[in-house]
Amino acid sequence: MSELEGPLKDIFDVVIHRNPGEPEFQQAVHEVFETLTPVMAKHPEYEDVLTRMCEPERQIIFRVPWIDDDGKVQINRGFRVEFNSALGPYKGGLRFHPSVNLSIVKFLGFEQIFKNSLTGLPIGGGKGGSDFDPKGRSDREVMRFCQSFMTELYRHIGDKTDVPAGDIGVGGREIGYLFGQYKRITNRYESGVLTGKGLTWGGSQVRPEATGYGAVFFVDEMLKAKGQGFDGKKVLVSGSGNVATYAIEKIHQLGGTVIGCSDSSGYVIDEKGIDLELLKEVKQVRRARLSEYVELRGNGTKVGTDGTLWQVPADIALPCATQNELDEDDAKALVANGCQIVGEGANMPTTPEAIKVLQAAGIGFAPGKAANAGGVATSALEMQQNASRDSWSFEYTEERLSDIMRSIHETCVETADEYNDPNNYIAGANIAGFVHVAEAMLALGVI
Ligand code: NDP
Ligand code: 2IT
Questions:
Q1: Is the pTM of the predicted complex or chain greater than 0.85?
Q2: Which among 91, 101, 133, 242 is the best mutation to test ligand 1's pocket, defined by most ligand atoms within 8 Å of the CB?
Q3: Which class is 210-371 in CATH?
């Protein structure tokens, strides 16, 4: 990580002091601070605002007891970090994964503030989750866990207060169980309290596809700026969950070929292009390992054995799995293999060292705050439909998503130019996201 100077260093020192043992949160804060030097020089009045922005408005940690299928009591830890509500109700997903801890929830919540600001929609930033591992659990166990989780969470959320959604390990099934318990406890059909709902009970068209589609729309804008498109491009997409699946779908619709994807047990290479229907069957229906995809597909498909997915030659790389999954060696391999663009579908998937390598090589780099904002943006569109008791068509909603991604791309480019850092999408996204929130916080007084 590069050295900070002046007020940014002072504020960062306070962050380190206040948040010891939270490496992911510190990394996310540092990544934003690195780009704010020219903003602070121009606007010293933002110093106090930035200090406040690093301190969540509220952090909730709670016990989640539940009973497994063997009748044994299990205990997990639940989190909701309500980070910033200057622009609207706290908004951000819930992650269920054994690695979840306060540092991870805070890094995600911090990123969400800037991402949500970039969408231009009235949503603040928050994040939550649990160290519960849904893998290998029956539907009934997942339901009992979700019901217990919501039995505490319900008192903190509401359509005008805090609106959770999905993230790793939380998809339509989990949102259903969570919504059912919220409705039961409160006796209110408050559709706008959660997003990512099913289409027959208040969900929005395109929300399942939105993050992956949005990331591809964003990268498509980057390609268009160079007079190119996805047509004929070879692409690597890590992960095989919600974001990865729909990124693959849109890339194939735009004429690209996704030649590799992964899960936590490894990666697969399918030079003819990932068979999406089979991938959905394996990962979404069977909830199985990717190795099953290889067994069923045949066709020369193979499980990767050398290094990581990123060592495979391709034109474009979209990390869509988890934080810090693409490291310095991976970045060097991408550069050596002539990769042109890296777009973050996941949150903070590229390590700081890897970002340096990619930027030094002149590779187009789209940070998650901008590139994966389509998910939360479509969540805000879901809230809009719920508030007006309406539902929109797939075509109209996808058009709205695509307009939002185009506008975020334009904002990043214009802001990077304004601050004399052309083509630096990280600077563009961080500065534009920050200034919007900072102005709102100044207007609202010291709160
Ligand atoms: P899913 O749970 O649907 O899929 C996650 C995928 O990543 C799975 O293939 C999983 O493998 C893999 N993965 C998870 N953890 C690890 C790990 N520690 N090492 C290697 N692989 C891992 O989650 P999403 O697709 O929703 O989320 C993916 C990323 O996108 C996350 O960073 C999330 O924060 C971000 N994101 C999600 C949005 C959304 O709307 N869902 C919006 C914006 C960002 P396995 O199946 O083996 O667990
Ligand atoms: O990281 C993210 O933006 C999400 N997991 C989606 C959040 C949301 O509220 O839809």
A1: yes
A2: 242
A3: alpha beta
